[in-house]
Design goal:
globular, single chain, about 160 residues, 2 domains, mainly alpha, about 0% strand
Length: about 160
């Protein structure tokens, strides 16, 4: 159930960014309605999970907070971009293949850009799915405990106060 809530949050984020970026009125209308639907899914997760998590004993809750942390940490810091994992992910490897780009050149270019200080920061007004949606959602349902908050801090994953 928690994984589904994360996926719904990612969908909401993607459609929100698309809505903000497009100048096409039809696409704006479509993405707006899709966002309304995704928001219902996310809201249902909050309504359902908050009370369920509150009833868990401390050990079970800490296990769940650690599971959520591991997922977020993997997405933030241990993701597959520019790593050996991305080279073995068939879905990811379709990106350079579809563009007729040699995978070695692709990863070399990524490394050179990073060394030159070119970051993957989002442009202004874009929502970051993890820090702007997932972390607040985890906090709302009780999955940011003092114990796991320390792990987020050590991993460099920002948590709003």
């Amino acid at each position: 159930m928690d994984e589904a809530r994360h996926v719904e949050g990612l969908a909401l984020d993607a459609f929100n960014n698309m809505y903000r970026a497009t100048q096409c009125e039809l696409l704006k209308k479509i993405t707006f309605n899709v966002m309304r639907d995704e928001y219902r899914h996310v809201s249902f997760g909050h309504v359902y999970l908050g009370p369920v998590i509150a009833k868990l004993d401390e050990e079970a809750r800490e296990d769940l907070t650690d599971f959520a942390f591991q997922a977020v940490n993997t997405l933030m810091n241990g993701g597959t971009a520019n790593t050996i994992a991305s080279r073995v992910d068939p879905g990811f490897m379709e990106v350079p293949a579809n563009g007729n780009i040699d995978p070695d050149d692709f990863f070399k270019g990524r490394a050179e850009a990073e060394e030159a200080g070119i970051t993957q920061e989002l442009p202004p007004c874009q929502i970051h799915s993890i820090t702007d949606l997932m972390i607040p959602a985890l906090a709302r349902v009780g999955l940011i405990t003092p114990t796991v908050r320390k792990k987020y801090e050590e991993a460099g994953v920002p948590i709003a106060a």
